[in-house]
Structures are given as structure tokens and as C-alpha cells.
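Suppose a colleague, Dr. K., hands you the sequence of a protein chain of 91 amino acids and asks what its three-dimensional shape might be. Before reaching for any lab equipment, you can write down a predicted structure in C-alpha cell form. Begin with the sequence itself:
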Amino acid sequence: MFGFVVPDVDATYSATGNRKGDLSMVSLLLSDWELWAVARRFIEDHGDMAAGYASLKATERDAQGDARGREVFLEVAVRINQLCSTEGTCH
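The predicted structure, expressed as C-alpha cells, is then:
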């Protein structure tokens, strides 16, 4: 639509090599606009279940000991909820 690519969150973490570490690194992995782009993509792909899917991904990351990944997916879920409340639906 606008010619920019939504980042692949999973690929971003795979490329870091170190899944455990300082939560301040989250901002280095994905910018604010990238988090919004991922949230919009989750809505496109998962509709009303998008926030739940992002939360599930956060839980999976947490189970793997990936605190940064958990925080990113929780941030994505927050943005999904904000978008859905603003737009009135997540379709």
C-alpha cells in the first residue's frame, strides 16, 4: 500500500543470536513505527484474534527464556488493542 515492508519479528530475533539479555535492547531491534506495522500486519492476518495471537507469541518467547521477545510481542499486543479500539474492529 505505502511501499514499506513489515519487519519479520521472528527473523529479527533469530538474527540477534542472543535471546536473553537487557530489555533496553528491544528499542534497538524494532522502532516504534515497526511495532505499529507489525500490529497492523497481525490484524490483517488474524483479525479479531490478533491481540491474542501476539500474547501467545509473547508467552512462547517467555517460555524460551527470551525476555526481549516477550516484551516486543506484548508491545505489539498493546498497539493492536489501541488500533482496534480506535477503528472499532480488528477485521
